[in-house]
Amino acid sequence: MIKGNNSCVLQLGSNMNDRQGLLKEARAKIQITVGKILAKSSLYESEPWGNSQLNWFLNQVIIVNSPQSPIELLRLCKKIEQTMGRSAKRGVDYEDRVIDIDILFYNNEVVSEPNLKVPHEKIPQRRFVLEPLVELIPQFVHPVFNLSLTHLLDSCEDRLAVKRLGC
Question: Is the pTM of this model over 0.90?
Answer without folding.
Answer: yes
